[in-house]
Design brief:
Length: 537
């Protein structure tokens, strides 16, 4: 873990007939596509699903090529360490799934350790039913679902691969810079395209003055934070593609990672900030004329990514929409609806492992633990080596201890199935995190093995803010303030709201003041409040 914590990397009007067809899932096929880094459930044609999966894997591979990382994982990733993407319906359906109907939300990502998941539509809108390749050629200045998905995946990639501290503006600027990677058919990709959907923002809204942007102590307005994407992208693009400024960017990021004040680090790295402001302003004028540098990169020995395709079975298709809701996350009302909807399917398809696991998850969420146990038993009868079945067995025990029996001693009973889940899928960080949590939730001091288990999954769970908070809390309990800051700072710095409400930032401030006990108590208070809200919902 110390090696990982210490590393800093240099870095989307139709006729009524068409509308009805587009809205009707009964006429669509559900496919599962799997690549080295993704699992995709897609309600679309086989051809389009396969192309979507291949291009998404190529996007991941491009990110790895730029950072000189291996394209293929050292060992095949388990499902728990791949990002699962649900690709279905239209933007309106995705917005509803996000809990914001009518908002226009065209995709979202949930960074959950052991189950990272994203949701994106097949169709951009009712009037625009086109193939993947046609959509890729869309040059309208709007943020399309593909751009959103790639932007969010860059965040996932950044937290997973670069476990260092970055300034708030650069986190979004980096995602914008890399989200516009363009893929060519011969395997080449282009880095440096502008985010066309930000053009109004960049050229018609007030820019974020660099001195203020670099100064994390400057109070950020809503427009300032919005310009992390516009001004931030422009600055990151200029610094990344200017040969003289590029080393200075690395120097600046390194200093931030080492805890230096943002404005001080910027002055030391870039020199005269007024001069840099003039250069960026001139660069923006050049960019408006289409004069932006970029790189075409052809990976050595390029081979198109392999995509394993299969159509969902009737059993799987019968529960896929309910399964998708579970993976989105449910409140008490949603949990009851999903469990009620899946109950008959679990009885109808007793020989489907997928259905039984989906039922187990839904029943645990709905706090129907007897039903969850029966679904787990059916799953284990079908496959005794199902790590997910053992995981849901443990989750059922933990839920029963918390909400039904209210017997904290029962948490110990979850440890054996969690150990079994880990034995069957050593790559999955979730059982090891929950193993640690069985001690904390029971009110016991965690064992040394539990602490080691928690620390051991950092590389596979670093993208999950909740995991980082759990680990940072344990480090603060041990009064390891600097290590806790290293773990916590990336998510504290990515806070988008008013800095006065940045509670994790307050924890960082206490650590900087060497008030580790106060930092510990503050973080425990924050997490207890969040946990109580989760229980109530």
């Amino acid at each position: 873990m110390n090696k990982v914590l210490g590393r800093i990397r240099n870095t989307l009007a139709a006729t009524a007939a068409i509308a009805a067809l587009a809205a009707s899932p009964a006429h669509a096929e559900w496919w599962k596509a799997e690549t080295d880094h993704f699992i995709i459930y897609s309600e679309d044609s086989r051809e389009d699903t396969e192309e979507f999966a291949r291009e998404l894997e190529r996007f991941d591979n491009a990110l790895r090529t730029i950072q000189a990382l291996p394209i293929k994982p050292e060992e095949e990733l388990s499902d728990a360490n791949k990002v699962t993407i649900f690709r279905e319906g239209r933007v309106s359906g995705i917005a509803k799934l996000a809990g914001a109907p009518g908002s226009g939300i065209a995709g979202f990502y949930i960074p959950r350790a052991g189950a990272p998941v994203a949701f994106t539509p097949v169709q951009e809108n009712i009037a625009d039913i086109r193939s993947i390749r046609q959509r890729a050629r869309n040059t309208e200045a709007e943020m399309d679902p593909r751009s959103i998905l790639q932007h969010e995946y860059v965040h996932h990639f950044m937290l997973q691969t670069f476990p260092a501290t970055y300034p708030d503006w650069y986190i979004e600027a980096f995602a914008e810079l890399y989200a516009t990677i363009e893929l060519y058919e011969d395997g080449t990709f282009h880095l440096g395209n502008p985010p066309q959907y930000r053009s109004f923002q960049i050229y018609n809204l007030r820019s974020f003055p660099l001195k203020q942007m670099f100064d994390q102590n400057h109070e950020r307005s809503g427009l300032d934070r919005l310009q992390f994407y516009g001004t931030g992208w422009m600055v990151a693009h200029y610094l990344s593609f200017n040969p003289e400024r590029r080393p200075q960017l690395f120097q600046y990021l390194k200093a931030i990672g080492e805890g230096q004040d943002g404005l001080t680090a910027a002055k030391a790295a870039f020199g005269d900030l007024d001069k840099l402001q003039d250069e960026v302003d001139a660069y923006k004028r050049e960019a408006k004329l289409g004069k932006l540098p970029g790189f075409d990169i052809k990976p050595a020995d390029y081979v198109a990514p392999a995509v394993a395709m299969r159509e969902l079975t009737a059993a799987e298709e019968s529960v896929i929409n309910l399964y998708m809701r579970s993976k989105r996350g449910v409140d008490r009302k949603d949990a009851k609806e999903v469990a009620s909807g899946i109950e008959a399917k679990a009885a109808e398809y007793p020989e489907s492992l997928f259905v039984q696991l989906a039922a187990a998850e839904a029943f645990v969420d709905a706090r129907r633990y007897d039903d969850a146990d029966r679904a787990v038993d059916r799953a284990l009868a079908l496959d005794p080596n199902s790590s997910q079945a053992w995981l849901f067995k443990a989750k059922s025990i933990m839920g029963r201890a918390e909400y039904e029996a209210k017997d904290m001693a029962m948490y110990a009973d979850a440890r054996a199935p969690l150990a079994k889940a880990t034995e069957l899928d050593p790559q999955n960080p979730e059982p090891l995190i929950l193993y640690y949590e069985t001690y904390r939730r029971a009110g016991e001091a965690p064992s040394e093995n539990a602490i080691i288990a928690l620390e051991s999954v950092f590389e596979s769970a670093a993208f999950d803010a909740a995991y980082r908070m759990i680990l940072a809390r344990q480090l603060l309990i041990e009064l390891k303030g600097p290590l806790a800051k290293t773990v916590l700072a990336p998510i504290a710095f990515s806070f988008h709201g008013d800095q006065e409400n940045n509670k994790l930032g307050q924890v960082i401030d206490l650590i900087d003041e060497q008030k580790n006990e106060e930092a510990r108590d503050k973080l425990i208070e924050i997490m207890d409040e969040a946990e109580q809200k989760a229980k109530e919902s």
